[in-house]
Every structure is written in C-alpha cells, then in structure tokens.
Design brief:
Elements (H helix, E strand, L loop, with lengths): L4 H6 L3 E7 L1 H10 L9 H7 L20 H5 L12 E10 L7 E14 L3 E12 L2 E13 L23 E6 L4 H5 L12 H6 L9 H16 L7 E8 L8 E9 L3 E8 L5 E11 L1
Antiparallel strand pairs: 1-3, 2-5, 2-7, 3-4, 4-5, 6-8, 7-10, 8-9, 9-10
Length: 286
C-alpha cells in the first residue's frame, strides 16, 4: 500500500530553523492584494515597515519553505502520485502574535492518517516556537484520491451546518491577473499557478490561484471588516478548500458573527455564479 499509516505516524519529526524579515512579511501581504489604496493608513499597516503588523496566515509561508502539503508527501511511509493529491483544508492556531521579523524552530510530523474509503487524508502538523516559546501550530489536510480502503479510522467530520440567516457583512475582493505570480514569490513555486501548459496537463484551462492565497485574502477581509483591523485578536483560523479560483476573478466573502469569539465565513467566485471556494470556515478571536 502506498501509504503506510503506522510508519508515517511513527516517523521522527523533522526539525529545522526558519527565519523571516519585514521584507518577507511585506511581500506576503502584497501577494494578498494589500496596499490598495497605497496611502490608506489601514493598508500601510501591511506594507510600511515602520507600522508593520503581521497577518496570522503568514504562518503558512514563514521561512519560505514548502507548504505543508509538499513536506507532508516527503515523510516516511508516504509514496503517492502527485496527480492524485489535493490540499483539502488548513487549520491554524496562534499562541501569540507573530513578530515582524524573527528566527524560530519548526517541527513537522504526520499527526493523523484517515481512511475515507475512496481516499486517504493526511494531517501534516507544523509547530513553530522561538526563544520566547510557542508561536503557532499549522495543520495541512492532504487529500489523496484512490488511497483509502484499508479499514482505518475515518477521522472526525469537519463539515459545518451553513448559517441560515443573512450575513453580518459581505465584501468583494478582486484578484489581479498577476496575483498568483506575485504570491508564489513567498515560497510556493508550483507551476500550476504560473505555467499555462502545466495547468492544462493538470486539467485546468489556465493557471489557478493558490488556495493559501485565497485563505490569506479571506482572513485579511475578516480582520479589516469585523476585528477593527487588529491582527492580534486572531486565535485560530480553519477552512476547507471547496473549489478553485482563477486570477482575474472576484471573491465574494460572507461573514457571520457567532457570539463574541467566532466569525463564520463562506467564500465564492462571483463570476461563476457564486461557485464555492472556501467552506466550513471559522475565525476564532479575542
């Protein structure tokens, strides 16, 4: 069997040092579309080093390493066809605000392997800490088609009942034609997001936007709209990738307040009849 769940779960964690600078943070923010209008004081918090704060989703690219999907596929006990792999979801827990520059230790391991019958789901967990203690924990859910059926644990259901009331806020965010080209400079060099010929081989008419770019754009919208622009209020952020986005499209981001500590979010592509993009999405906050 290409996935040996016992071997993958028993493998020694991989530990390494990562570092980032204010330039890395600024580049990431620009890749999400920050800086429009360029002189807006609220946007300058994302682009100007003297005022810089860090959107928590920067954790997915900090250190310019491979995303959790790629590193998870190189772990012991996992030999799969990349053409069968999808990034199914992403979960982030913040232990404290991310500094605008820093050096930290990153530890990655396979935290779970689930048998969904016709597919397997790998959970690649990355824990990051600096000299002052834990910073964040990232889980990438890796969906591998055709690799289930061995009788293993199906794992928890991540599906949420969609809200039935009107959203508290709806915003739209346009995606520039060059946005994937800019976002990939933060470390995800998959040609699927830049090379038209590669995209066609993968089954798409043209390159698609990184799912984690949509993930970051959505969190920025929530922070700017419902959290008073205060990135330090974010405690956790979970999503399921429900569909693709193409550069040039528009995201429609619907938000529902859930009490005093959570926002539910749904994201769709306006030009494709509100085709779902992110689902089962929550932002936990202070």
């Amino acid at each position: 069997m290409p996935i040996d769940a016992a071997l993958a779960l028993a493998a020694e964690p991989r530990t390494g040092e990562i570092s980032w600078t204010t330039k890395d943070v600024q580049l990431y923010h620009l890749g999400l579309g920050a800086g429009t209008p360029a002189t807006d004081p609220d946007e300058l918090r994302y682009t100007l080093e003297s005022r810089l704060h860090v959107l928590p989703s920067f954790a997915t690219v900090a250190g310019n390493g491979s995303p959790g999907v790629i590193s998870g596929l190189s772990m012991p006990g996992i030999e799969v066809d990349l053409a069968r792999v999808l990034h199914g979801g992403q979960s982030l827990r913040l232990h404290r605000p991310i500094p605008a520059k820093g050096t930290a230790t990153s530890t990655g391991r396979i935290a779970a392997v689930y048998d969904k019958g016709k597919a397997a789901v790998l959970v690649m967990r990355t824990e990051v800490a600096d000299a002052d203690g834990p910073l964040w924990t990232n889980d990438a859910q890796i969906f591998v088609r055709g690799e289930g059926g061995w009788g293993g644990d199906r794992g928890p259901s991540t599906r949420l009942e969609p809200p039935t009331d009107a959203p508290d806020k709806v915003v739209e965010r346009h995606i520039r034609e060059d946005q994937a080209l800019l976002y990939r400079l933060s470390g995800d060099w998959n040609p699927l997001h830049a090379d038209p010929e590669f995209a066609k081989v993968a089954g798409f008419d043209r390159p698609i936007l990184h799912g984690l770019c949509t993930y970051g754009m959505t969190l920025k919208a929530v922070v700017d709209t419902l959290l008073d622009g205060d990135v330090t209020r974010v405690r956790g952020y979970d999503t399921r990738f429900a569909g693709v986005v193409f550069p040039g499209e528009t995201l429609r981001i619907r938000m529902w307040r859930q009490g005093d500590a959570e926002v539910r979010v749904a994201v769709s592509a306006v030009e494709r009849d509100d085709a779902p993009v992110l689902a089962d999405t929550t932002v936990e906050h202070a």
